Input
Amino acid sequence: MKKVAFSSTGRDLNSLLDPRFGRCDFFVIVDVETDEIEVFENDAKNASGGAGIQAAQFVANKGADTVVSGNFGPNAFQTLNAAEVAIYTGTGGTIQQNLIGLVNNQLQRINGSTVDSHYGMNVPQGSGGMGGGRGMGGGRGRGGGR
Output
């Protein structure tokens, strides 16, 4: 682990980890060896489609070998995995807290996507949950046989 990209709501280590990877506001990239910090606005956040792929390609092209976010869709996961980037889910809180958790082996490395495609597309920032807008009933928002 040398360069770690965090999905972020802001431009510094005190910013909150954004639960959305492909549609986060910013990427904070930390070089763990030199403590150098780079911040980039996520140009993919407003894409009509393919935000996860674009975001994953961006952080890989910036040299990140590890990425931390709240959630990863299937396309982002596949793209990061193909680029041999280690993928971790964060714990919420600040970028600094997640960096410390990562260095101390307290974050979970994942082996698959954590949400469906298009997660976060119309989800306001900070509205947590893994439901993706589906109902909680037996029909899961699909009409339930009516």
About this structure: The chain has one domain: 3-109. Residues 123-146 have pLDDT under 50 and may be disordered. The two ends are 52 Å apart (CA to CA).
